[in-house]
Amino acid sequence: AQKVTQAQTEISVVEKEDVTLDCVYETRDTTYYLFWYKQPPSGELVFLIRRNSFDEQNEISGRYSWNFQKSTSSFNFTITASQVVDSAVYFCALSERGGSSGSARQLTFGSGTQLTVLP
Amino acid sequence: NAGVTQTPKFRVLKTGQSMTLLCAQDMNHEYMYWYRQDPGMGLRLIHYSVGEGTTAKGEVPDGYNVSRLKKQNFLLGLESAAPSQTSVYFCASSYLGRSAFFGQGTRLTVV
């Protein structure tokens, strides 16, 4: 079963529009971590945010905001007033205990959302 | 600060050849991971390690082997490369799974 689902494969918006990227996760672990990464056309993975399962406070960083809701197992990412430089693939990831190493944490990624911001 | 360094950055192999990808981290992290990234499939975990001398299989381990002889290094080996292993490979290190720092990636083409 897919652990991290990013249902939006591609999104296109016009510059200055707001856009929300969805992430739904599945875990039986009670202590887990959620991440968002950005992968620009240059290919590197840029860390954006980490949230642990005990902290449901929403977070805002400049034009970026994150909405973590345990009740719906979602960790959505909103970009306000999008810019062309926001064009990238965005990945949501889950760190949870399990796998063949028992209590060790595996880091599982969603399939990513390609965001294109048009001028 | 170096962080996570992968070598090489690019490589072209012929089918059947072998090679080793090296990942080195200088953050004293216990956990290290190898992923492959293919179009439309995100990052898929190949193998990971939770400490020196330990390794474990991830989602797509077939055709790969790994070793973690030193805490700071995690090697990914392809014994007999196949075209299906053409991909971009990322290494990551983590402090007990609570963070994840990635290398720049290795673009491997098998012809």
Model description:
- The complex is a heterodimer of chains A (119) and B (111).
- By secondary structure, chain A is mainly beta.
- In chain A, 0% of the residues lie in helices and 52% in strands.
- Chain A contains no helices and 12 strands.
- Chain B has 111 residues and is mainly beta.
- Chain B is 0% helix and 50% strand.
- Chain B has strands at residues 4-7, 10-13, 19-25, 31-37, 43-49, 56-57, 65-67, 73-78, 87-94, 101-102, 106-110.
- In chain B, strands 2, 4, 5, 6, 9, 10 and 11 form a 7-stranded mixed beta sheet that branches. In chain B, strands 1-3-8-7 form a 4-stranded antiparallel beta sheet, with no helix packed on it.
- Chain B is globular and about 35 Å long.
- The N and C termini of chain B lie far apart (35 Å).
- The relative contact order of chain B is 0.33.
- Classes of the chains: A mainly beta (119), B mainly beta (111).
- At the A-B interface, strand 5, strand 6, strand 10 and strand 11 of A face strand 4, strand 5, strand 6, strand 9 and strand 10 of B.
Would you spell out the secondary-structure blueprint of this structure?
The complex is a heterodimer of chains A (119) and B (111).
Chain A: E1 4-5, E2 10-14, E3 19-21, E4 24-25, E5 33-39, E6 46-52, E7 59-61, E8 64-69, E9 74-79, E10 88-97, E11 105-109, E12 113-118
Chain B: E1 4-7, E2 10-13, E3 19-25, E4 31-37, E5 43-49, E6 56-57, E7 65-67, E8 73-78, E9 87-94, E10 101-102, E11 106-110
Parallel strand pairs in B: 2-11
Antiparallel strand pairs in B: 1-3, 3-8, 4-5, 4-9, 5-6, 7-8, 9-10, 9-11
